[in-house]
Write a sequence for this structure.
């Protein structure tokens, strides 16, 4: 049976999780604990040497990178539920939206998330404990991000990320004003990958995502939250409890 | 007939160009002149509002984003030459490599390229001319990059990009030591998209890409340069002549 290693249903981990739930594909879920840095443990780095979730194990094959996993599930495990438009143009539009999440939207939201939540986690460690954690991280850029989270991200970086978030939610809202779904006239991986980042932003980013400024974005997230597969996923897969920065 | 708007055969423009040549798909090529900022002209922004090449026009449809165009060509215009592995796992590996170009490898090489070549182009302009050019650029992050090219990129940014380039060519070289091609045991879009960035680096980055340090990378670029489609592309599509920074 397929095995998915992930955190709870948010951000990159949500992408393959929701894809599997929507497709109705059976899988065995393994939830890692980010608070104990389990994704940097030796046992998990034997599965994904980059120490990153999600990772899908399919027989003797390991597939990494959340967006790639989603397309792999469509390629290798098609089900009655198709999450890619059948026409090439719709599929290209879907890929432009998933690529945009991976190259732009997820990064700005992620930095603010790290600033707010990861900082606490790592500030509670002694210098020695922290250095041991950093030594276990295989990706150089991730080491830098953990250090920044502990020291505090520079204010100009946080300001720039907030500018990008404002641009991103406006871009989504404008497109969703004229389109029920993001690409190809159907619920697709474009919606799943963007929803994985945008869901719940009316709590964490209420000054940018609200009924007055982004009504179409909120219509779309509400509509997705009503889908049976989404409800089932949230009911069955626990979300991490994060404590905001003091 | 398909129309491709692009610069000469390098970087992102080379990806769909070489894909079309390899597939033997007929197309009409429109080469834009980067030296006159033709990609920011109103006529081209009517085709791609982001003012970026390449862009493919297929009947009444416009497809943008170089990697997305390559997959679109495989989806919509299959030919006797397949550039995607037939098996899902090989295809996933191909996508991890094309994604890595778009998110990592192309950016570090691009910054150094801008530092060396674009600086000259924009330093020759008066302040007024330069501001008019910047006003025509639709993407905020691109405006910032043009300003940095004129003012000079900060040294710590250049150092960090060089570190990433060294990491990138080592990663390619290590993988190519044990593999003829990057993914799926065949020449694929993974090779095309990486070759588009890596070709010629033994000139511009000779301290990193050379027979002693990256023999497998050089074996692979030489092998690709011997392909009939690659020779035909370089013979038919002129390359821009760039003058290095003084």
């Amino acid at each position: 049976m397929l095995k998915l290693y992930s955190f709870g249903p948010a951000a990159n981990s949500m992408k393959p999780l929701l894809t599997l739930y929507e497709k109705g594909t059976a899988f065995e879920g393994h939830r890692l604990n980010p608070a104990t840095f389990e994704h940097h443990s030796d046992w998990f780095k034997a599965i994904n040497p980059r120490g990153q979730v999600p990772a899908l194990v399919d027989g003797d094959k390991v597939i990494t990178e959340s967006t790639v996993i989603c397309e792999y599930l469509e390629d290798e495990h098609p089900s009655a539920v198709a999450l890619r438009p059948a026409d090439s143009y719709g599929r290209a539009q879907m890929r432009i939206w998933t690529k945009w999440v991976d190259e732009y939207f997820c990064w700005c939201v992620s930095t603010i998330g790290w600033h707010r939540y990861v900082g606490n986690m790592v500030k509670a460690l002694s210098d020695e404990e922290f250095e041991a954690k950093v030594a276990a991280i295989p990706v150089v850029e991730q080491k830098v991000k953990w250090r920044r989270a502990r020291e505090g991200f520079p204010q100009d970086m946080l300001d720039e990320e907030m500018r990008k978030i404002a641009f991103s939610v406006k871009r989504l809202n404008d497109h969703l004003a004229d389109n029920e779904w993001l690409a190809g006239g159907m619920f697709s991986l474009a919606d799943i990958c963007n929803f994985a980042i945008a869901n719940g932003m009316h709590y964490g980013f209420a000054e940018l995502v609200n009924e007055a400024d982004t009504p179409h974005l909120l219509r779309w997230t509400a509509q997705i939250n009503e889908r049976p597969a989404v409800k089932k996923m949230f009911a069955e897969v626990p979300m991490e409890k994060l404590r905001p920065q003091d």
